[in-house]
Every structure is written in C-alpha cells, then in structure tokens.
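## Example record

The block below lists the input lines for one assembly entry, exactly as stored, with component labels intact.
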Amino acid sequence: MYIEQIEIRHLELPLVHPFETSFGREEVRQTILVAVRSEGLTGWGEAATSAGPWYEYETVGTCWHVLREFLAPGVVGQEVSAPEDAARLMAPVRGHNIAKMGLEAAVWDLLGQARGQSVAQLLGGTRPRVAVGVSIGVQPSVAALLERIGGFWAEGYSRIKIKIRPGWDVEVVRRVRERFPDAPLMVDANSAYRLADADHLAELDEYGLTMIEQPLAYDDLVDHAELQRRLRTPVCLDESVPSLAAARAALALGSGRIINIKPGRVGGLTVAKAIHDLCLEAGIAVWCGGMLETGVGRAHNVAVASLPGYTLPGDISGSARYFHEDIVEPPFVANEDGTMTVPSGPGIGVEVLMDRVEAATVRGEIEIGD
Ligand code: OSB
Ligand code: MG
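Predicted structure tokens for the full assembly:
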C-alpha cells in the first residue's frame, strides 16, 4: 500500500486519578496519535510519551520533532506491504522508540484493515483473552492505597502492582500483604534504588511478591544481575530493556528472570515480537506493560499480549481506570475473570471517535506524500 498521508496529533487528556511514581506525578496525559492513510483507509497508532523525560528520555516534544522531521518523511510516499516494512523504513533513526511505535503501530492497523485481519492475527497472537492487572501509583497514605487496591481487586483484576520508592516500600508491602494475603502482588521501583540497597530490598522476599520491577538504574544490567543473585524475588526488567540487543545482554548476564516487554519502550510491535520470541526460546517469562495509553495504544498492547509467551498478567487495565471517556468505542473493560478480550475485528478492532480526538487535540500536523 502506498502511504498517502501521515497525520500527527498531540492530545491532552485528564487522568481520572493522578499517577505518582518514584520519578514524578502525572495529572494530565500528554500523548501523540499517529494516523496513516492509504486507499481510503486510516490506520491509528499511539506514541504514548509523556510531558518530561523521567521514565525514559523521550517527551511529547522529542516525539513530535522526530516524527515530524524524520520518521513521517521517511515513511510517507513509500510502499508498505508488510507491517515490518515500516520498522525497516524507520531503522536509520537511532532510538526514539516511543515515536517509532506510534507510526509503526498505525501501519499495523492500516494493513490489518486492508487484509481483513486483526493486529493480533497479523502478529501471530494465539489467545482470545489475555490476563490483565492494574498498576497503582504512590498514594497519600497506606489507608488510601488499601482502599484503592480493594476496589480493583473486587473488579477481578488478575494481579496488583504497586509503585515503590525509598520511604514507601517494605512497610507498605507488609500492610498490603496483611490485608490481601492471596493476591498476586508485585512492586515497581522505576529505578529508585542502588545495589547498596540490596539488603533492604531482600526484606521484600518474605512477602511472596511475583516480582520486583526495575529496582536499579534505567541503563544498568550488571548490577541487576548481582541483585538478582541476592534476592529470592524474581527481578523483572522494564527501563533497562529498550531493544533486542539489550534483551540478549540481559539474558546472557542473568539480569532478571522476567521481562516487561512494552511495545512503546522497545520501538514497536516488530521488536516486541522479536524480544518475545527470544524470551520464549530462553524460557524467560514476559508480560506487556503499559504507559497509560488511550484506547489506541491499548488496542495494540492487547494484541501483543495475545502472543503465546505473554504468560503473566499485563499492565492493561480498563479505559475507565485512566480516562473519563476513552477515545475509542467500545472502551476497554476488564472481564470479571481478570482477563481482557482481544478485539477480533480488522486492524485494532475498535473505532476511533473523531469528535473526542478533536476535542483533546492541542496541536496537529499533516505530512503528504508526493
Ligand atoms: O514503569 O511500568 C511503568 C506508566 C508510565 C510509565 C511507566 C510505567 C507506567 C505504569 C502504568 O506502571 C501502567 C499502565 O497502567 O499503563
Ligand atoms: Mg515499570
């Protein structure tokens, strides 16, 4: 298909609850939607970035710049016959993975629509429903956290993840465990600790956590390997695995026992699948993380999570957990058994509601092929 047009839009959507982590607090979601047009069809993708370079270096500003100046010009006016073609066209740009995900995902949606196949089918997904959990930010008090967990647990989510940071860790986990003795529970530190904190982190071992996500520096693999040797709790890598090469290094070093493969962080569905294949082969468990996506990015994440190696519940929660109104119809809803149904219609399998997209757009630009 000849890519006739690419449109990028910067959206602002207020979050239902502020999201607080070891790196900061977000009240309004800043994200970028990418639309690619060909033969009367529009494919949608999301570059689920954020306002500042705290989770990783990209921001709404860098994603805009790189999409506008480099990625869109490299893809518009080109023929794509397989989704991987988009990844190949963008390969000359180093890094900027979240920006790449936005455009690559839009091409997957476009080609899925053209072929009458869902993105999950195109990828080789095997599960009609995927297990989903919820990621809960730092709360003003433990009582508030317990209440929030109780609400989500009652909705049926398959596991609970809480954000931790120094001063909000072992004692909080102890109290959560006391109240929810049987809940699959994990923690995410977003790089808030150093190897010198290993003894402190080992205190978490007695609470039966399914994993501790990204305890150490965002660019470290060596210290994570040493930490894993000192913990019974499995270490899960998030920030430290931005590419297939990093995943190979992590496996070689034993930097963790689990990888959170977020398509956005690794630069698209093609790389996400490659890392998944590597981990499946190596017997490393994986799951699909999230970055507070709108329904567009969520649809792609759900499709990726249907791959056979994604055996652990993902950070893929219902639309209402994030937004007052999602920008897709139907919105995503977790089933009572803690799963989410993978849309089976062509492409992302949900309809993008243009009136809501328009209302949330603060900036838009169109690139036209010659
Ligand atoms: O570290 O997994 C993370 C959100 C934004 C950036 C990084 C992370 C997160 C989450 C939320 O934990 C997951 C979600 O519900 O989308
Ligand atoms: Mg994380």
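Residues 55, 135, 188, 190, 238, 289-292, 315, 317 surround 2-succinylbenzoate (ligand 1) (CB under 6 Å). The radius of gyration is 20 Å.
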